[in-house]
Amino acid sequence: MDFYICKKALDKTIEFHGSIGCDDIARLRLDALDRALLNDGAENAADSLLILEMLFRRHAEQTGEQIVKGAVLP
What is the pTM of this model? Predict the structure, then answer.
C-alpha cells in the first residue's frame, strides 16, 4: 500500500498517486458500511475518492502505519 501527495507551488496544483494491493484489502477488517462502499462500486470520481479514503483510513487504524508521503515543489 502506497500513497504519495505532491503540492506544486509553481503552478498551484496538488498531485496524488496511490495503490492498494488486493492482498492489503483482503487483510482489512471492514464493517458492513465499508463493504457496501467497496462492493457497490464507484459511479463517479467523488465515489472513487470516498472508497480510497475509507481503505487508507482502515489500513492506518488497523496497522498504525501512516502511509502518506509528500513533497512540496517550487
Answer: 0.71
